[in-house]
Write a structure and sequence with these properties.
Layout: H1 4-16, H2 18-49, H3 54-77, H4 82-105, H5 109-123, H6 127-137, H7 143-172, H8 174-193, H9 210-223, H10 225-238, H11 242-254, H12 258-284, H13 288-308, H14 315-343, H15 346-377, H16 380-401, H17 403-406, H18 412-421
Length: about 425
């Protein structure tokens, strides 16, 4: 479990650093609305189509656009003012968020999925930029804790947003959840606008052309084994992540629990993603070798836990499987992001994190499409086993491929910091 000292240290960091507090709070309110909306939209689309794989289509629409746009967003994040970019994106996200209301009024699953895709496209210009900005608003010795806290926000808001969202949908209707989602983007924009520190180092403007700046990222990846390893680690969890899109079908079909069941399973996912980053940070101890080993073990945990899901005799047992899976998923996501933040110069960080986010969402999107097709073709249980098996195989391969790094005599993160400072 996340230790009380970790929570206390996060609270102290938030108290003494107003800029990090604003960035943290903006992420909190935005994600809270996102998960309220996901419960409402996935439930609506599943009911409107009557197909068990339709919720996977919603999930796929929420991640695939990021694969196409995150590398572009990362490039833009290294060329323009990051704060202005984030505020602009927040304001633009209000429009498709309100479009979801129209989809419900017109009973149009196609419009709902289209609005989800547009929201995801805009979010791909926000999420990697926020991660790239974190090292600029905290001290170097605070970065590990700051990133673990920010990573846990995703899980916290999924835990709270999904659980409360399921209940709110029942009590007040789906439209109320969608109105709240739109309002959170306005609050997020106000919070980001209040950040005073620059969110990037202002050096001389780059004279390189577009493709030359893209080439800088590939050069870094070729030269740094650590960067290559971290860039592909999220795919291990991502390849099995399509199972998340099937959770509404498990809740509605296997356990006959409707939106409340969807909220319970997503809340279990969120609780795992909340606790996982702090557990991972504690085990890694800012040691690159341990960080890589924990990332690999997290992939195996994710795959094994979801392989048990089809055997669940009850909703609570299923929630326990989901919780365990995302303890691994949460640890792996935050630790790999922290490794990239530490090992990448600020002038390249936006591009590298954009590529990292894009590769991760490609894996998630492909997995989601496969999940929907498999659920329709062979059923929920075989689909879950196939996807969890993909994570297990990938995690095993990745641990073997990186064995020289995590078995090595030196701390690869320390070496990377030394090269940057030199």
């Amino acid at each position: 479990m996340a230790s009380s000292s970790s929570v206390r240290n996060v609270l102290l960091l938030l108290r003494r650093n107003p800029d990090y507090r604003r960035l943290f709070s903006a992420t909190v309110v935005s994600l809270l609305g996102d998960w309220f909306a996901f419960v409402a939209v996935s439930g609506f689309v599943t009911e409107a189509t009557g197909r068990p794989g339709s919720a996977a289509a919603v999930y796929s629409a929420s991640v695939l656009p990021a694969f196409l746009l995150s590398p572009v967003a990362g490039l833009i994040a290294d060329r323009v003012d990051r704060k202005r970019l984030m505020v602009s994106v927040d304001l633009l996200r209000v429009l498709p968020a309100l479009g979801l209301l129209a989809a419900l009024r017109w009973h149009s699953p196609v419009l709902a999925i289209s609005c989800v895709a547009l929201l995801a496209a805009l979010s791909s210009f926000f999420d990697p930029v926020a991660e790239a900005a974190v090292p600029n608003v905290v001290a170097p010795e605070e970065l590990s804790l700051a990133q673990a806290a920010l990573g846990s926000v995703w899980g916290t808001m999924l835990f709270i947003g999904a659980a409360v969202g399921g209940l709110a949908t029942i009590a007040f209707g789906r439209e109320a959840s969608l109105v709240l989602n739109a309002a959170t983007f306005l609050v997020s924009a106000l919070l980001v606008a209040g950040i005073r520190r620059p969110l990037q180092h202002h050096g001389a403007p780059s004279t390189l052309g577009l493709w030359a700046q893209v080439g800088e990222v590939w050069t870094l990846a070729r030269q740094s084994r650590l960067t290559r390893s971290l860039l592909v680690t999220k795919a291990g969890v991502g390849l099995g992540n399509g199972i998340v899109g099937l959770l509404p079908a498990f809740a509605a079909g296997r356990f006959a629990s409707g939106d409340a069941g969807v909220g319970a399973l997503l809340a279990a996912r969120g609780l795992g993603a909340l606790l996982g980053p702090f557990i991972g940070q504690r085990w890694a101890r800012d040691d690159g070798r341990r960080l890589l080993l924990v990332c690999g073990a997290s992939m195996l945990t994710y795959g094994l836990a979801y392989a048990l899901l089809p055997f669940a005799p009850s909703l609570p047992f299923a929630a326990a499987c989901v919780l365990l899976a995302h303890l691994g998923g949460g640890a792996q996501w935050v630790l790999s992001t922290y490794g990239i933040q530490v090992s990448t110069p600020d002038s390249l960080r936006g591009r590298v994190l954009g590529l990292d986010f894009g590769l991760a969402t490609l894996a998630v999107g492909v997995s989601s499409l496969a999940a929907g097709a498999a659920a329709e073709g062979v059923g929920l249980a075989p689909a879950a086993w196939g996807l969890s098996g993909a994570s297990l195989l990938y995690g095993t391969w990745w641990l073997w491929w990186t064995r020289d790094l995590w078995r090595g005599p030196s701390n690869v993160l320390t070496e990377s910091r030394s090269r940057q400072s030199g």
